[in-house]
Amino acid sequence: MTYSAVFPHHRYCDAPPASPFMSVRAEAGPEVGSPAFYAAMAPLGDQLRRAGVSAVYLVHGTFVGMDVLGILGELARVMPRAGNAMRRLVAQVVTQITGDAGNYSAAYARIMHEALNPPGSSPLPVRLFHWSGENHHLGRADGAIRLLAELADHWHSDGSRVLLWGHSHGGNIFALISNLLAGPREALDRFFRATEVYWRWPVLKCVDIPVWNQVRQMLMGETHCPIDAQRLDFVTFGTPVRYGWNPAGFGRLLHFVHHRPTPGLPAYRAPFPPKWHRVVAGADGDYVQQLGIAGTDFMPSVLFVREWLADHRLRSILCDENIDAGGMLQRFRAGRIVPDAGTTLLVDYGPPQGGPIRHLAGHAVYTRKKWMLFHLAESVRRLYQQPESADSGQPAASAESCTGR
Description:
Blueprint: E1 21-25, H1 35-50, E2 53-59, H2 71-78, H3 80-98, H4 106-116, E3 126-129, H5 137-153, E4 161-167, H6 170-182, H7 185-199, H8 210-219, E5 232-237, E6 252-258, H9 276-281, H10 287-291, H11 305-317, H12 325-334, E7 343-348, H13 356-359, H14 372-384
Parallel strand pairs: 1-7, 2-3, 2-4, 4-5, 5-6, 6-7
């Protein structure tokens, strides 16, 4: 991982990760909604309370957001109420279509909330956080800004913690947050100057996306920032290795990656190129996590000039510039699926059900209600109990030994 006056970005190579990882077999628990399920979930809620957790957030990934094309964001500039109403409607439609396939649905959040809050317990809210779902730097940056504003609005000053789960690029929103909360002032200044064309009119200089300026003032010390980064605990699910993590910008960090080791390759690497018949069968795990690395973004529409300019300027700050076809092939061949921060669980969930549309090339498994108990039990155990030693032992090389991107 490289550091400079900009935010860190992962390098891609086949060297062992600098962070611990281990292989885990997922075990399905009682049927969701059954008395046995609630009986198993309730003690986990008690453990979260004892650990000081005051809220749980569920953050979806790319393509299941409420504005994957950025159209509603542009509408909200001139008609905020209409834009917000449309976002809510789109979110409902997306949930109806996808269910819990690669998406944290309202039903998922409701079941988790009920299970963690049996009668007589102190409230532990489970909140859904929606962002646009756009597959580019600015989309994720906008998600990070809005999530920071949400956290600041609900922050408790009693020393309690916040547990956040992020699917797919929702986890990279967390990585950006770690850098926004703990990055050097020069990097923050460059970040907000690069994106200013998006949230402030270039000529008139009036702010038309107020939440951006509010968070900028908070992070730059112009107003009070209530958020204590060390009390944010992040769990990512199928998040592609993309942005680096600032260790001062979070408390605890855990990653779930759907993966089955390939003979002849170390457990921490994915095979490349993927073979179609294996993708259809979901034979190697999560292909979206494997392939959603640097260089796979969609550019914002040129019809939205301000958004396009801001995303273009963000690239140099996020160390993602100068991507060419040869470099992309090299990154894919590296098979990097374990980030250089936190602890990674390489999870075998067993054979997927249905075809690639149903399991989304191995990417849909994380948000299935079937695995809620497993994910929560592992999160509680790894984050709030005595951690186990990694199966991999000490890494043979750090990320700094990698060459190329």
